[in-house]
Structure formats: structure tokens, C-alpha cells
Amino acid sequence: xxxxxxxxxxxxxxxxxxxxxxxxxxxxxxxxxxxxxxxxxxxxxxxxxxxxxxxxxxxxxxxxxxxxxxxxxxxxxxxxxxxxxxxxxxxxxxxxxxxxxxxxxxxxxxxxxxxxxxxxxxxxxxxxxxxxxxxxxxxxxxxxxxxxxxxxxxxxxxxxxxxxxxxxxxxxxxxxxxxxxxxxxxxxxxxxxxxxxxxxxxxxxxxxxxxxxxxxxxxxxxxxxxxxxxxxxxxxxxxxxxxxxxxxxx
Length: 250
Known about the structure:
Blueprint: H1 2-26, E1 29-32, E2 42-49, E3 57-63, E4 72-75, E5 81-96, E6 99-112, E7 122-130, E8 138-140, E9 142-147, E10 152-155, E11 172-174, H2 197-249
Antiparallel strand pairs: 1-2, 2-7, 3-6, 3-9, 4-7, 5-6, 8-11, 9-10
């Protein structure tokens, strides 16, 4: 009886944990493919899971931050979905690659032309964005998810540091420290056919490391040769002494 009660209690506890933890995995999120460095460009994925068991997700609207407008926003085609990019005039023009930008993408909308995201599945919506702001640590993208039964879920609550996660958190993109020329490369000034100092040093180290085994082998061979000579001499001396003992005994 005790064992049965313990097993039942354990099952209830596990079910409670699963139920309570499900919302943490059900909301719309945004993650970079690689890194999202300040001042650079990145491809980010808006991940949309279907949190209903009786309806499909048929539409996703993502609002882009107006306090940090992005001059370049290019969605990747997603089979089974139509995409619409909405631009808006900026209150204050921004400069990008020497050009004044007076408008920027304010919203991207994906609408299913098929079955959408069915129960038990998720979908990623990739977007190339940039240039990412240099004076921010994160970007907040508010999202609206629409289901085939006309239910609408607004993922627009901004998470606050030190507080519990809201019921419908907005997707937040964490930005990493700036990298080199802001395009993910080091921006070396040396011609590609001319080895850098680091490459030369690495080559020198490799040569030195390659030479070490040869020196070690040579030294080992010499030591073994000396040992062989000593052992051989000892063997000869032992043979001479043994012969003398036999002669004395005779």
C-alpha cells in the first residue's frame, strides 16, 4: 500500500511539474544564428511553438523596435507562408554606410497559405537584421500569434530584471560585444597572400615542435647505445671470471 501511494504521489508531482513548466517553453522567442554583435549584422530566428491542441497557428506579426530602428531587415522565404514587410517613417533619420535612412521596418507579418503550425509542432522564421545598435544590450520584439480558431495571443510584456517572467513575455534578443569591423570578421589590413605575424609565429612553433621528436629520438638512441656497450662489457667480464673459476676448480 505504501509503495502504491508513493508511486501515485510521484506521478502527481511529475504531472504538476510538467504542467507548470509548459508555459516556459510555449512562448514566441528570438535567437541569433551564431552571435548578434553590437554594430553588426545577424540572422535571427523567431521560434513559434503551437501551444494549443485543437488549433493551428496561422499568422505571426512581429513589431520591430522603434527606439533602435534597423536599416536592413530581410526575411528568409519560409515554405507555406507569405511574408509582408511594413516600413514606417522615422522621427529622426539614421545614418547607415554613409546614407541617410528616413524609414525603417516597423513590422514583419507571416501568414500561412497552408496548414500553418499544427499542434505538436513549431516553426522558425529567419530574418537578416542590421546594423544592430551599439548603445543597447538587448532588443525587444513584440509578437502577436493568431490561431485557426481566431484566438489571438499577444506576446508583448517586457521582462524586467529581478522580477518573475510575465505570463506573455515579448521575444528579447540579447546583444553581444562588438566584433572587429562589425561584420563578424577581424578586419585584417594585411594582404591575404602575406602571412601575418601570428601565422609566422605559429609556423615557427610548429617547426620547433616538429624538430623536438627528432632530437629526442637521437638522444634516446645514443643512451641505448651506451647502455648496450656497458651491458656487453659486463657480459664479457662475467664470462672471463666464470672461465677462471672453472680453471681454478679443475
